[in-house]
Amino acid sequence: MGSGAITGYFDVAQIVLYGFWIFFAGLIVYLVRENKREGYPLESDRSERAPRVKVLGWPAPPKPKTYKLRNGSSVTVPNDKRSAQGLAAVPTAAFPGAPLQPTGNPMLDGVGPGAYADRADVPDATFEGLPRIVPLRAAGGFGVASQDPDPRGMVVVGADGLVGGRIADLWVDRSEMLFRYYEVEVAGAAHGAVARRVLLPVNFSRVAGGRVKVKSILSHQFGAVPPTRSPDQVTLLEEEKIMAYFGGGTLYADPARQEPFL
User: Fold this and answer.
1) Is 20 among the domain residues?
2) What confidence category does residue 123 fall into, taking pLDDT thresholds of 50, 70 and 90?
3) Does residue 25 lie within any of the structural domains?
């Protein structure tokens, strides 16, 4: 037998290889189980009445585990917690997995690209415990680089080419050192409403030609952007709803967007 051989059929390298395969298979099973701490058990749409058929899959979700959070609170997952959101949509056909047809305002009802998660209704915090995303007026030491255009004062143009508001301030992420939102002052006089300020995600906009252009929603839809409770803070849940509104607009802002290309 050669060097490293145990028998005529096994050697050390072969045993190490088999051991690695077993370890890697166990790692995959562990990661899949940990991935099921949230969102499981699934509820099958094959069952029309409660209690619905629960789908666990293989491997099954892990046992509940309690995590202590930095703010002193704790969360236990999995916990079978149900979302308080109602489904404002109905299937377009009778077969399982059929597309959903919105029944309300899909940009606000959390349907399709406008869906959002029930995150905590508290502001995200920096390592020091300060609110992470705040307007420049509340963030000393932050500003717009001299090499970049300052969007403050620029008009905001919707997908219809009309003005929907004007940039009043910028909201900065103090942990990542970048701008997350534009604060838009929406003029409501034309619609008989009081002017208000809403947040526009930077990723849904583009600064060009001295204007801020938005393709996801129309000019008159800026006034319906989900608000924030505080003028200088935004919670995780509020961020979800704001992003969902603009995400939903990519499909539902104009009825023509839901039609086929051909």
Assistant:
1) no
2) very high
3) no
